[in-house]
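REQUEST FORM: STRUCTURE PREDICTION
Request ID: SP-0412
Submitted by: Lab K.M.
Chain count: 1
Length (residues): 225
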Amino acid sequence: MHTPTENPSPMNWLTLLEHEARTLLAELDAHPEARRLFDGSIDKDRYVHYLIQTYHYARWSTPLMAEAGRRMKRLNPNSWLGELLQQKADEERGHERWLLSDLRQLGWSAERVERQMPNPATTAYVAWNRFTSRCGRPEAFLGTAYVLEYLSVSRASQSVERMLAADTIPNIRKAVTFLRAHGPTDEGHVAELTSLLGSLEEPEARDALLLSARTTRVLYLGLFA
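STATUS: Completed
RESULT:
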């Protein structure tokens, strides 16, 4: 069994990264609250809760990833990882507005959403990525990005289709902007990220990505608590 400290080969380390994402899928499929989202049986209150928690972490994705990219360039001006982080930041730009739009369709104003406190898992997720961006290894954020984009590819479109088919949430057809946009878009992002990370040779950088992917997997379950 490989661990990050054993310096796995490029193929093996990417397999470990994908394992974290696939493990998250299995854990979410076994989680009663998450399963309701995926099978379309989620009710309005639970869906609102999911969107609010997602908003509270998504709003930080662009600024923190951009900050990680800038710091990466300062630490190693020749590292292509800095450019990749800033590219990922651009891809995430404005996604929090989709969440606010979906919530508005469900009767929640932006001001009301802002007044809702993020739960402990969401707070920890933001704190972890803030730490890696500002104080830790900034490239670690790419492990977080990989896991979340893998999740979107695997479950976002399915969730939208099943919620629309169930049609149990009033105005649901106008409240799936965030999920609908992430399924097909993130498929290309995962493929590109996998291809680029295949050339990552530094063991410490691989370890940082794997740790961040694992941390994201553990914390993401808390969105549904």
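NOTES: The two ends are 31 Å apart (CA to CA).
Reviewed by: T.R.
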